[in-house]
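ARCHIVE CARD
Drawer: 12
Card no.: 0347
Subject: one protein chain, sequence and derived structure
Cross-reference: see card 0346
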Amino acid sequence: MSTDLNNWQQNNQRYLSAALHWLRLRLRELAQHPTIPAAPVSRAQPEHQHASGRASGRKWHFWDKPEPDSRRLPPLLLPAADNSVVSAEQLAQATEELKTAAASTPPPAMVVLTQSFGLSKFESEILLLCAAMELDTSVATLCADAQSDSQKSYPTFALAMNLFEEPAWSALSPEGPLRHWRLLEINQPGAQPLTTSALRADERIVNFLKGLNYLDDRLSTLLLPLRPLTNIEADELPTSQYRAVHSILSFLQQNNAGPAPVIQLVGSDTPSKQLIAQHTVAALGLHLYRLPAELMPSHAGDLETLARLAERETALWPLAIYLEVREATSEKSADLYAPVDRFLTRNNGMVFLDVREARREFSRETITIDVTKPSAAEQANAWATALGPESNGLATRLASQFNLNLATIHQVATSSAHESQTNPSARHDQLWNACLAATRPGLDGLAERIEPKASWEDIVLPETEMKLLAQIAQQVRNRGRVYEAGGFAASRSRGLSINALFTGESGTGKTMAAEVIANELNLGLYRIDLSSVVNKYIGETEKNLRRLFDAAEDGGAILFFDEADALFGKRSEVKDSHDRYANIEINYLLQRLESFSGLAILATNMKGGLDTAFLRRIRFILEFRAHTAVERAAIWRKIFPRQTETRGLDYERLAKLNLNGGSINNVAINAAFLAVQAETPVTMSLILEAARTEFLKLKRPLSEADFQWLEPTDAEAHKGAAA
């Protein structure tokens, strides 16, 4: 590579020296023999390809080499002023040297530009004249001499028509490549004629001719380079994602005649889509830059400039654009996609379009590629590669519980590597917690996180319900072994969700049961907040639910739909558009709940308010009935923390109070406050006082005798304590 770069630098320097020498001779000759500007040859169509089409093919690329160091470039040879008469032999010799330098391999930058943008001979000479102003300080004086005007020390179109052969009016047409691709700029103040206005080569183009290749400064604030590939990502793609890369390359190879189609990468996992795009451009020898749609200018003129410059870079750098279109609300969708469509229409370069769902409203041809995360087996292989061959069991457990892309797997494995080396026994917990932390941000904005603290020792339920809870936890823990290893996932895409319905009165333990399962599995528990999900705009509720379910699947989180009847209610008869869209939301919930790979728990005290279609899809139904006296006594024995001092509690007497678990918890906390106020331990009298308040709150009939308590004497208390 170093040899090729040195050869190219030498060839490019030789060409520039020959071109500047030839140009100086032409300018001196014109200054010595001034002529009246002649009308250029009229041509219906220039020799170059129309500027709005694709840039012509190139035989050799030097831009994939390291950027040349400007300090290594030898200075241009600038001869002293020469007032001698230019002979025909000198011009012929300079012309021959220029042709020889242009034919060198690898070709110099000016030849690459000419081929890339389809410049005619006259257009290429105009560009050389304008660029020479930045390469040779003597050219300005020569331009003034050639135009017989000391004030015109700059190139003009009139000068070019007299200086070069085969002039054409189309050279400065707005549709010609010089102006279309912004290769040069025209300074035309007031009513000055176009032919006598100053011409100036674009700075990016001048530096390209020097051999300095970099992204245009005007694009650097909008086009952002993607992060480099990790070792895992660069070495080998999962089979499912390799197929996507192969499909794109095959399509481009079969359809390489016209402009490249827009490649729509459809799905919710942006890192996986970026990975596919990076492997595709690596195979094509391109640089990939990210362009967030929200950064695109809304003004038509600015958007036109962005599209032109970006497409120009596809020939100079060259690059492909990864256009990110974040999911917008229905009322803002049109405002977001209008500039995107205009940009795609004006830019024929290679563009990857990151969208959640395929779009059809674009004017430019598109192809659609569905992108998903690697399969569970592929994720297990990635974990094993990152953690080492001795960690196959751990890799399988992580892959069966968390749905992660390669970038996240590498990040988690790398961040936990040091801690694992210092404490190998805690490796599983460190990786597990790191996965939970990596997936948590996707859910925090959509649901309320519950810190699960309750354990099996804290909950009191009949034996049948306790067994069902244990069975739910076991199925979530072993779903990878059954679905993946057991082959169920390969033969069906629905019906694999694990879900449960907790039904019963408030305070009977539904939320605590969800906490027990989450605590047992060490998974996140999220209560769905309807205010952040339900949206008055049509289609927005479904989008919110989709984001919620997708994020929960990635992190293996448990979704807890409290008061589920508000969201999973019965479908109604369609009388107006509101009924129809409400039914659509319920239908979407039915489908998404059935395909959800995690655990969803629905809790309600109105089982009859649920649509029967939901009940058919529920795998477990737990009835949380009112507690019996035995269960209430067990709850009372567990309700006070060890740090709370109690004295002389009669649990059998307390069990006679007809309260559910939630009310018992309220009574216990209120009694603890009363004890702090009285500066005594929690006693029966304080508990009964708090219980009386709870009964009044619930508007239940009460007998004052039930809340009377005679505290035992010290002797009786001592005897009871001994017993």
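Annotation on reverse: DSSP finds 31 helices and 14 strands in the chain. The first strand starts at residue 184 and ends at 187.
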